[in-house]
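Progress report, Aim 2. The chain analyzed during this reporting quarter is listed below.
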Amino acid sequence: MNQKHGGDEMRDDAHEREAAFWLALSRVAHIGPARIDRLLLRYGSLEAAWSAPGEDLRVALEARPLAEFLAARLTVDPESELQKLSNLGIRATYPGHPAYPRLLAEISGRPSILFVRGELTPADDEAVGIVGTRRASPYGRQVAERLASDLAKAGVTVISGLARGVDAAAHRAAVAAGGRTLAVLGSGVDVIYPSEHAKLAEQILTSGAIVSEQPPGAKPDARNFPARNRIISGMSVGVVVVEAPMRSGALITATFAADQGREVFVVPGSVLSTSSEGSNALLRDGARIVRDGADVLEDLNLGSGGGREAVQTQLQFTANESSLYQAIHGDPRHIDELAEETGLPLRAVSEALLIMELKGAIRNFGAQYYVRR
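Predicted C-alpha cells for the chain:
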C-alpha cells in the first residue's frame, strides 16, 4: 500500500473538512454559486465563513440569505452531515477539491457540490458522453454499444445518464469492455432511476462512479433532468448523439455541449425515423458525423486507439465524389467553395460529401467545412 507523506495527508484532511461546510451550505436556501464565490473571496474558505460574525457577513450576503444562513448555523452540524454521507457510502466533492472533475470545474453554472458513489479518477479527464433516446431502435442500441466499447477499450471514460435505451446500452458496453463509465443522475445517487437499472448501477460502481448534484434521497423529478444534462456534457471532452427526436434530453445535452465548447458528434439515422429527426437536424446544422469510436478518437486525439489508418486508394468514388475529393486538400474547404470549384450543384455536393464522410474519406471540420482524413 502506498503511504502518503505528512503534507499530503494534511491537505487531504483539510479538503475533507472543507467539504463538510460546502455540504452544510448546500442545505441553505438562496445561497448558490454566486454567493458562495462572494464568501470565498471574503473569507478564503467556507469553514471560515461558517464561523464569521453575523454583522460581518452582511458585507457578502443580502438580508434574506443571511437570515437563512444564520438560522442554519443553529441547527446544522457540518461534520455530522458529512459523517451521515460517509455512513451511506457517499462522498461530497466541490470545486477546488481534488476529486472534483477538472472539466466540470471549467464550465459556467458548475454544481457547487457533487455527490459521488464509487470513485472519480484523473482518467475521467478523458471522457466522452454518449446520449440518445430512451426509445432506442435496435440500430441505435447497436451503435451505442459499438461506440462505448471502442472508447472504453481505448481507455476513454464513457459518460451517460443511466436512462433506458441509448444510455443503458452505452453503460453496459463500457462495463463489458472492461472500461470506466460514469452515470449522472437526476435523482440522489442512492435513488436509482429507472429501478430496473439497479443491477446495472452496481456494475457501474465496480468500474466507475454514480454522481449527482441532487442530495441523497432526492426522487427523480422532471425539472432535474435538463440540469443533469449540463453535467454530462460538462464532464466530457465531446458528446455523441446516437438517436434523438426533435424534443429530447439528448438535444438539450448537445446544446449544453456546444455552449461549453465541447465537440458534438452525431450518428446519422434514418430520414424516415422520428427517433432520428433531432440528431439528423444536428448534422444538417454542421455537427460532426461519426460511425464508430475510431472517428471520435481521431477527431479528439484521445486514447490509445489513434483513429484509423487512411486507405483512400481502396475507396470506390463516383464521378462527383472523385471531383470533390480532388478539391479537398489539407486545409478545410467550405461547401460553397467546393461547389464553385467543381461546378456541381450545391445539392449534389451536399449529398456526395455525406456519402464520402460515411466512407471515411473526409470529415466535417464544423460549419460545413471539410478536410481529408
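The chain has a mean pLDDT of 90. The CA atoms of residues 208 and 361 lie 35 Å apart. These observations will guide the mutagenesis work planned for the next reporting period.
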